[in-house]
Amino acid sequence: MPSLSTLRLGSQGPYVKKLKLSLNGLSKNYNNFSIDYSFDQKTEDAVKNYQDDIKLFRDGIVGPATWASLIARVKMIQVKLNSLGDNSGTPDGWFGLKTTNAVKKFQSEHGLVQEGIVNPRTRAKLFNPHPRDNFESRSSSIALSSLDPYVGFLAGRFLRLCSANHLDVRITTAFRSWDESDRLYALGRTVPGSIVSNARGGDSYHNWGLAFDAGPFENNKISTDPTKFNLMGRLGEQVGLEWGGTFKSIIDLPHFQYTFGLTTEDLLNGKRPPR
Ligand SMILES: [Zn+2]
To answer: What structural domains and CATH numbers belong to the chain?
Structure first.
């Protein structure tokens, strides 16, 4: 393949449209950019979100590494669809009309909404059609037992450490159901309100029992004191959790996670934490 030119804010042309088709097809078009020839601000935001997801440096510029990862991800889907008899054409790494139609065919065969994009539920069905766990249908819970056992163990240590530091920390969300994530994602998009989340069901570590939210309480209410949140975050890091207060994209002070080095895409592709 000839080397692709680097695209960035202000770029124009057919490869911008190809980029947008791929991001959209991979379910990374959170901000509803239009599929055209202009690399606008919404496109840059989508590229940054994508780079975050796959742990590339989030500069919003589509250079060789970002192109290579996009093409590999689309190709992987095309190969899978072809193997299932849903003809997506020659696996070329571009999310064109044939691939879109093959995704729609797969979605109609599996009772999924026919969006023609590989949303998380579609990815889960494609790559892990008979999961032995049932994350997709579990209910939301604030119980530590709803978490992965090791993450639940870390959360318990964290709560004890907080209380030893005279901080009344309580869990506000542990496992979050996929339906609840979908409802949060719909806010500000298909349902009136403001946008609160970029995660559809399956996109969040909460949907896999690998994340929980917590808050420092004062007089039975969540504290508004930033120093208490900072102390809580540092104590979480001390037990080995990753704290949302250190996130580069959306700072998320109540959020803690332990991912075993897996991305949510890995989880949707059928990978699981070690037992
Ligand atoms: Zn969270």
So the answer is: 14-118 (1.10.101), 136-268 (3.30.1380.10)
